Amino acid sequence: MRxxxxxxxxxxxxxxxxxxxxxxxxxxxxxxxxxxxQTPVAVPIGGEFALVDEDGKPRTWSGFRGKPVxxxxxxxxxxxxxPTTLGELSVLLVDLGPRSDDLQVVLVSGDPERDTPEVLNAxxxxxxPRIVGLTGPEAEIERAFSTFKAYRKKVPxxxxxxxxxxxxxxxxxxRNGGFVGTLDMHEDTKVRREKVERLLAADA
Length: 204
What we know:
The protein has five helices and nine strands, in the order αβββαβαβαββββα. A seven-stranded mixed beta sheet has the order 2-1-5-4-3-8-9, with helices on both faces. Helix 1 (3-17) runs antiparallel to helix 2 (81-96). The radius of gyration is 16 Å and the shape is globular. It has helices spanning 3-17, 81-96, 117-124, 138-147, 189-202; strands at 50-53, 58-60, 69-74, 104-109, 132-135, 152-156, 162-166, 170-173, 179-183. By secondary structure, the protein is of the alpha+beta class. Pfam families: SCO1-SenC.
């Protein structure tokens, strides 16, 4: 998908889904700090998992150490939030230029029943080729969602099928796997880019 076409599609998708996206409220270092009385108690966000990527290659969380990582939890049958977010992340990678090679973007599927490696591979063809998709056994997917404090819920649909309600924020980690904040698709594009640039600069 050409970048210009992707940008135009994203504007339409964002307009159609405005008010739906729900992101976490953390900010990266350098943002406006919350009052001391409202500062949450630090808890670990993220942990080990053993999944496979869109090529069937085994992947662990520790295997991503060495460069900053942006993690998004979604699924391939998602009609709006997931393609919009992955499209925005694809544009971000292109806009970062050579620096984008220092950022790993990862999609963790919350729908292992349908999202096989082959399905993930086909789905990711519409986005930046540097994005890695992960799936695996239900137990490992549940472990990943649990340790990353991500939400998902299987919801039946009227046609007898199902969809997945899930967290919509993008989790940001430094090169050592330390959680540093999130990207919210409600934020201005410039704000999201500045967050990523600060993350990359801190890990340079």
